[in-house]
Amino acid sequence: MYFLRTASMFGAAIQPDLRLNGQVVGESKPGGFFFVDRPAGKYVASAATETEKTLSFALDGGETKYVRSSPSVGLMVGRVVLELETPDKAKEELSSLSYTGDAVTASAK
């Protein structure tokens, strides 16, 4: 699973942790991406600022999912919305983003 965020000045200061089934796997950083390797199954990705936004999806064996985080306007603080991105669009964008993950979160624990 790849997590990516477009580089933009809008909402740049909003960089919440991204969770996968409750476990922190990285941060939503502008112009960045990271990946985690997980087995097939059902997953809930989430990001929380003033409210928690979630995205539920199933991962098939051998499948790669691309989860985009995007800043959005909130009541008091901005939020980050999560959505699945198409493989073609995500792959096209990945080359312009910086890797923001680390070895600890990249593999399943």
From TrEMBL:
Pfam families: DUF2846. The lineage of its organism: Bacteria, Pseudomonadati, Pseudomonadota, Betaproteobacteria, Burkholderiales. This is DUF2846 domain-containing protein. Residues 2-74 form the DUF2846 domain.
